[in-house]
C-alpha cells in the first residue's frame, strides 16, 4: 500500500470511529511540510502523524499500484497507551487483507511514538507521531 492510499484509508477509519472527533489529512489540517499524514481529534486534543514508506524492492511509483493481499493481521495486544494504541487497534481491527503486521514503537527499545505497518506487498509504512 502506498502512502497516499494508506493516508486516505486511515482518515476513513478514523472518521468512522466513535472515539475520534474530526479526522483529516495533514494537508487539510494546514501542514505543508509533510506530504502524507493524519490529524485526528482524540479526547479533545488534536494528534498528528506523518506517514512515510520503505517501499518494496523494485516498486516504481510511476506505475499504477497493484495491491497485494494475504492473511488479515491479528494483533491481540499488548497495546500501547494513548493515541498510538488507539491507532494500532484501529488499523488492526480494520480487517484489511493488505496489512501483514503492525509494530508499536512505544513497546520497543528505545520507545518512541508511532507504528510500522508492514504490508503483504513488502512495503513498510512508518506512522510517526508529530
In helices, the fraction of residues equals 10-25%
Mean pLDDT: 93
Radius of gyration: 14 Å
Q: Numbering strands along the chain, what is their spatial order in the largest sheet?
A: 1-2-3-6-5-4
State the end-to-end CA separation: 22 Å
Structural class of the helices, strands and pairings?
alpha+beta
Description:
The model has no long low-confidence stretch (mean pLDDT about 95). A six-stranded antiparallel beta sheet has the order 1-2-3-6-5-4, covered by helices on one side. The chain is α+β, with helices and mostly antiparallel strands. Helix content is about 20%, strand content about 30%.
Q: What is this entry, summarized?
A:
By secondary structure, the chain is α+β, with helices and mostly antiparallel strands. 18% of the residues lie in helices and 31% in strands.
Task: Give structural attributes.
130 residues, alpha+beta, 6-stranded antiparallel beta sheet, 6 strands, 18% helix, globular
List the helices and strands and how they pair.
Blueprint: H1 3-15, E1 20-25, E2 37-42, E3 45-54, H2 82-92, E4 99-104, E5 114-119, E6 124-129
Antiparallel strand pairs: 1-2, 2-3, 3-6, 4-5, 5-6
Amino acid at each position: 500500500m502506498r502512502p497516499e492510499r494508506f493516508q486516505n484509508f486511515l482518515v476513513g477509519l478514523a472518521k468512522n470511529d466513535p472515539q475520534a472527533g474530526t479526522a483529516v489529512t495533514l494537508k487539510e489540517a494546514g501542514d505543508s511540510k509533510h506530504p502524507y499524514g493524519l490529524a485526528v481529534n482524540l479526547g479533545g486534543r488534536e494528534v498528528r502523524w506523518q506517514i512515510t514508506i520503505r517501499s518494496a524492492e523494485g516498486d516504481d511509483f510511476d506505475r499504477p499500484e497493484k495491491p497485494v493481499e494475504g492473511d488479515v493481521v491479528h494483533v491481540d495486544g499488548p497495546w500501547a497507551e494513548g493515541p498510538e494504541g488507539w491507532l494500532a487497534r484501529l488499523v488492526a481491527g480494520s480487517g484489511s487483507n493488505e496489512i501483514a503486521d503492525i509494530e508499536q514503537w512505544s513497546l520497543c527499545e528505545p520507545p518512541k511514538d508511532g507504528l510500522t505497518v508492514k504490508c503483504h506487498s513488502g512495503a513498510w509504512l512508518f506512522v510517526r507521531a508529530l
